[in-house]
Amino acid sequence: DDADVRKELLLLAPSIRVPCLTHDGAKVWNTMAIAQYLDELRPEAGLLPEDRIARAHCRSICGEMNSGFANLRSALPMNLKARHPGYKIWAGAQPDIDRIVEIWTECLATYGGPWLFGKRRTMADAMFAPVATRFLTYDVKLTKPCIAYCQTVMAMPEMQEWVAAARAEPD
């Protein structure tokens, strides 16, 4: 709601949303669009699974993450500095949590983990990384496979760097 912040965000992205990728003349501000752009730019990075059916599955859950889970986002705002043990989950957010647990459980069982689509990270892991942080921040009760997945995500060097940078920001 701060006018100065709004002006700053407008400089970054016309939607006033982050993230926004600016690269080689392109400005891409939707998470799914950024992931697809990066996959086109660096297909060897393996942002999508090689198998056609797994690739379709990955795109589907990424699309669901990109456009859904509004109640989760509202009830459990992103906060890498906080920890809320025993947090009472708002009833409206529980169906979103249940659906994410269902997605993670299915992917981990189908593709064998430790990542959602097997042995290597994909765009799905990047898109669900903020959810893992929310689940930890708000002490969301998870199944063992989902706890292990959150731990895997949080152990990534990039996540460690992100958390450290967030904790270093002034309040």
- Return the average pLDDT rounded to an integer: 92
Q: Could you describe the largest sheet, including whether it forms a barrel?
A: 2 strands, antiparallel
Strand order, sheet with most strands: 1-2
**What is the number of helices?**
8
Topology at a glance:
Blueprint: H1 3-12, E1 21-23, E2 26-28, H2 31-41, H3 52-67, H4 70-75, H5 94-111, H6 123-137, H7 144-155, H8 157-168
Antiparallel strand pairs: 1-2
Describe the structure.
This protein is mainly alpha-helical and 171 residues long. It is built from 8 helices and 2 strands, in the order αββααααααα. It has helices spanning 3-12, 31-41, 52-67, 70-75, 94-111, 123-137, 144-155, 157-168, and strands at residues 21-23, 26-28. The radius of gyration is 17 Å and the shape is globular. It starts with a helix and ends with a helix. The mean pLDDT is 92.
What's the gist of this structure?
Helix content is 58%, strand content 4%. The chain is built from eight helices and two strands; from the N terminus they run H-E-E-H-H-H-H-H-H-H. Helix 6 (123-137) packs across helix 7 (144-155).
